[in-house]
Design goal:
By secondary structure, the chain is of the alpha/beta class. The chain is built from 5 helices and 11 strands, in the order H-E-E-E-E-E-H-E-E-H-E-E-H-E-H-E. About 20% of the residues lie in helices and about 35% in strands. The longest helix has 14 residues.
Length: about 250
């Protein structure tokens, strides 16, 4: 990477908030315009920094939800209990405000430009956000790669990006772990080995597997995939938080 491009990624930039919309009862989607944005790969994230009037700063990392082909940058921020950054971004931030961010960051958990075989995505809760970028890229490029998504959430209301989970060559399976509405046609339990065996691509097909979600979810899924015979080198994981799960 050229030094100028690297400096641009690592320097803090100002983004204009175009709009803030409710994604779920606890999550908001931020649409941003970044004036000197160099582009990103599907699966990357940015750091966001807030500065208080007294000079106190706090920063957090957020996955990019929009595909590289979009003219804007979307983040989906889930409000955490007592979260000083997420609380401000989901409850106080308004269209016309400014945000400081830097990025894009990360080269491991990204959709590879050379991908040729099938891809399996497994998400827990807000871990689906980087997959929205990947699925958006798949649609935008009219990719012929087969993609399967297994997405676990606590309730139907907690599902993020429901209008972005489908497309040609994309197969999505949803499972709810707590509240299940009448007439629900998806699965209704936590992800386990049996579910992985029945609703993900078989290890014999050597899929590239991405797993994202809370730490306990990712550890359970990764262990299940290995027990089914998936190649460890074909499994990419990204986790957040210490406990809990969808």
């Amino acid at each position: 990477m050229a030094p100028t491009a690297l400096r641009r990624r690592l320097n803090w930039q100002v983004a204009d908030v175009l709009r803030v919309t409710a994604e779920t009862p606890t999550a908001s989607r931020l649409r941003l315009a970044v004036h000197d944005w160099a582009g990103h790969d599907a699966g990357q994230h940015v750091d966001v920094r807030l500065t208080a009037p007294d000079g106190y700063t706090a920063q957090r990392s957020y996955s990019i939800a929009s595909p590289p082909q979009a003219p804007h940058l979307d983040l989906v921020v889930e409000r955490l209990e007592d979260g000083e950054v997420s609380g401000y971004m989901t409850e106080e931030l308004r269209s016309g405000d400014l945000l400081e961010l830097r990025g894009p960051i990360g080269g491991y958990f990204v959709w590879p430009a050379t991908a040729a075989g099938p891809v399996q995505l497994i998400a827990g809760g807000s871990g689906v956000v980087p997959f929205l970028s990947m699925l958006g890229q798949h649609r935008a490029t009219r990719s012929e790669i087969q993609v399967r998504l297994l997405y676990s959430a606590r309730s139907e209301a907690d599902l993020i990006g429901t209008g972005e989970l489908a497309g040609p060559g994309i197969s999505t399976t949803l499972t709810l772990t707590r509240a299940v509405p009448p007439g629900w046609e998806g699965l209704r339990r936590r992800v386990d080995v049996t579910m992985l065996a029945e609703h993900t691509l078989a290890p014999e097909r050597s899929p590239l597997v991405f797993v994202c979600g809370p730490t306990s979810f990712v550890e359970t899924v990764a262990a299940g995939l290995l027990s089914l015979g998936h190649d460890q080198s074909r499994i990419k994981t990204e986790r957040f938080g210490a406990t809990g799960g969808p």
